Amino acid sequence: MKEHDRLYEEAKESGNHCEVTAHYYSVMSNVIDTYFGGNFHFASPDSDDIYLEEALLRLHRKIGGKLELQEGVKCLDLGCGIGGVMRDLAPTKATLTGVTIAPNEEEIGFSFVYSKKIRILGNAEFSKMGISNCRIHAADICDMKCIVSNSQDAAYAIYSLKYLPKLDAVFKEVSRALKPGGKLAIYDLIKTPSYNEENLEHRKIVEGLEYACGMPSLHTAEEMQNAAEAVGLELIETVDFDEKNGRAYHYCFSQSALFMWLITSPFICNF
């Protein structure tokens, strides 16, 4: 935690959270793989009897459906981590290219993808198996030199834009990478209009999240929309799944007695 604290304080001073984010995921990637099935984000389930894994799978499929992923479609996973979402969307047969800022996640991701029998694009080791539609690159999503301009039909960002202090650069890069008419889907934590900066409890919750994950100040939906429109992207649809499903985004976690005990245990608090 000392290293995390140091990097987080440096990030707050410099405004650049790349190093603390990369460190966080370098430390957490194996945990995310082992205990969270490769996906470390929340999803609001549409019924009480659904566990996190199924809620996430349904969310990912909804995103894939909105982006019309199918064979012949090229799609970017912005901030892909170790490839959990790519694993769930691989059956669409779309060509999925993941970008992660943590170099070790590229290696873990390939291993994870292989262990789950997910397809990897351009990997000679798997070409003999006829596996060909997923690949992970280690790069900054604000500067994706590995991605050719106007080459992607779609892109999605799941819990990744919250790590960027400013959104201009990433939307500019996405706009560059997408073909004319290409679609972008974003699923993220944001501050809602009801957030009150003067409310101590509100600030405590939000700042606790920001510290734990090495994030800058959370964005609002308006900030995201304005940054997207500034580079010519047009809003098609917005959905609040908490409202639509009638359950909070953290439902699958907060309803788990084991998880709630774990995050308040002395072991975690003193780590």
Automatic annotation (TrEMBL):
Q: Which UniProt keywords apply?
A: Methyltransferase, S-adenosyl-L-methionine, Transferase
Q: Which GO terms describe its biological process?
A: methylation; sterol biosynthetic process
Listed GO cellular component terms?
endoplasmic reticulum
MF terms (GO), sorted A to Z? sterol 24-C-methyltransferase activity
Q: Which domain of life is it from?
A: Eukaryota
Q: Which InterPro entries does this UniProt record tie to the protein?
A: Erg6_SMT_methyltransf, Methyltransf_11, MeTrfase_SMT, SAM-dependent_MTases_sf
Domain SAM-dependent methyltransferase Erg6/SMT-type stretches: 24-271
Q: Which Pfam families match?
A: Methyltransf_11
The entry sums up its family as follows: Belongs to the class I-like SAM-binding methyltransferase superfamily. Erg6/SMT family.
Query: What name goes with this protein?
Result: SAM-dependent methyltransferase Erg6/SMT-type domain-containing protein
